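From the shared-data thread, chain only:
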Amino acid sequence: MFKSSIAIASASAVLALAFLNPAHAAPDEDAAKALMKANDCTKCHAVNKTKKGPALTKIAEKYKGKADAQAKLVTNFTTGPMVKLADGTEEKHKVIDTKDQKELNNLADWILAQ
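Structure, as tokens:
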């Protein structure tokens, strides 16, 4: 009985760990870059360099480990909130010209992977 309890506990632990780190497909970098280019995102953002807006690596760092990171980025892309620029001024963030949730999620995931 003791051995079966240990086996059940071990199996439960393995299953719990599997759910903590769900398998996600890697973001499609080419599609994300194309969407950014088509929407002039590169005018304000670069991967490793602060331009008018923060570097994508800085954005990824800000959201690292947060469960709602993807949703927050997608909201930022689709609602046009006021954002603070590198020079301290504020302006309305441009809205991405797509309603395709997969494209939006892919872009967010790619940014978060930086």
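The two ends are 49 Å apart (CA to CA).
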